[in-house]
Amino acid sequence: MSAAIDVAHAALLLLDLQNDFLHPEGAYGRAGQTAPTLAELPARIAPLVSRARSLDMPVISSHFTLVPGRDGEPLISPHLKQMRPFLGKGDFLTGSWGHGVVDELAPSDFQVEKVAFSAFYMTRLDWLMRKLDIRTIIATGLVTNGGVASTVRDAHVRDLDVIVAQDGCAAFSADVHRTAIDAMRPVARIATISDIMSEIAT
């Protein structure tokens, strides 16, 4: 067991745990783009969120965002349009229900809108880390090989200590998840939600 986490300088990240990704009536759910491993995430993460709140640890959520063009259709990068052709007007729109954190985990203390994989890319997350004097982040969310991995690596190059909750993240397949977790070991500590909760116990 590692030394107890310094909760005064730690934050819990909820990466892209949004209705449009996870709720059956969200953008991905309506398109049939779901997986049991993703649907189970909120219930697994909820106790960790509750523990963080009880210790006054900041809970920061990232929100994948599609910016609407002048005609209302979202400005989507070509690679994303190819992978997810079902995304359209109103999906991942700032202020919409789909853009928000799923009910089981809401509300977060701070929200960060993002337009690419990493929650640091062109966002205020780095600014928040400095203003809140955060030195350790606990990463949860989806997908392990996308938003999670990119954010974790960006945190590492900013000299932040990173702990990845391996059972608090998920991908569309278990094999992809395991591969992504293993690839993050050089830049982050991998732990279970249970271990993390023990380390931030009062």
Protein architecture, described:
The chain has one domain: Isochorismatase-like (Rossmann fold), CATH 3.40.50.850. Strands 3-2-1-4-5-6 form a six-stranded parallel sheet, sandwiched between helices. With 202 residues, the protein is α/β, with parallel strands linked by helices. Helices cover 35% and strands 18% of the residues. The protein contains nine helices and six strands.
List the helices and strands and how they pair.
Blueprint: E1 10-15, H1 19-22, H2 27-30, H3 36-39, H4 41-54, E2 59-64, H5 78-83, E3 110-114, H6 125-131, E4 136-142, H7 144-157, E5 161-170, H8 174-184, E6 189-191, H9 193-199
Read across the widest sheet, the strand sequence of neighbours is 3-2-1-4-5-6
Q: How many angstroms separate the termini?
A: 16 Å
Rg to the nearest angstrom? 16 Å
Fill in the CATH topology. Answer: Rossmann fold
Provide the residue-averaged pLDDT.
96
Keywords:
202 residues, alpha/beta, Rossmann fold, 6-stranded parallel sheet, 9 helices, 6 strands
Question: Gist?
Answer:
The chain has 202 residues and is α/β, with parallel strands linked by helices. The protein has helices at residues 19-22, 27-30, 36-39, 41-54, 78-83, 125-131, 144-157, 174-184, 193-199; strands at 10-15, 59-64, 110-114, 136-142, 161-170, 189-191.
